[in-house]
Design brief:
By secondary structure, the protein is of the alpha/beta class. The chain has a single domain, classed as Leucine Dehydrogenase, chain A, domain 1 (Rossmann fold, 3-Layer(aba) Sandwich). The protein is built from four helices and six strands, in the order E-H-E-H-E-E-H-E-E-H. The chain is globular and about 40 Å long.
Length: about 120
């Protein structure tokens, strides 16, 4: 295995930024889904504080296929994105960023979970 982790030159990078992220289950969940689906990708968590946000986002713009955003960065990240989805703009916060051809597009999916709970 290249690098001892199963990663290859074509492995796609995804992850989570925020603070704290050390106890997040997202990396384990996403990596399990990638394995099960046969997707050559890895999902990591990066401890990111406000003062590190711009540098982290610019690195992910170059290296990642997308990333999730958690507290306390959901509002702050919006100013660094090329586009913000309409619902995320209304909410004023982003929790999902897609990287497409070097452009960052932000979405907010939190409201979907709330809506499903209310409708259930």
């Amino acid at each position: 295995m290249p690098g001892g982790c199963g990663c290859t030159p074509s492995t796609r990078l995804y992850g989570l930024i925020g603070s704290p992220v050390s106890k997040s289950l997202s990396p384990a969940i996403h990596c399990a889904v990638f394995r099960e689906a046969g997707v050559d990708a890895v999902y990591l968590a990066w401890e990111t504080r406000r003062g590190e946000l711009e540098e982290t986002v610019e690195a992910l713009r170059r290296l990642a296929g997308g990333f999730n955003v958690t507290i306390p960065l959901k509002e702050d990240v919006t100013r660094l994105l090329d586009e913000v989805d309409g619902e995320a703009a209304v909410i004023g916060a982003v929790n999902t960023v897609a990287v497409e051809e070097g452009r960052l597009r932000g979405y907010n999916t939190d409201h979907l979970g709330v809506r499903r709970c209310i409708e259930a």
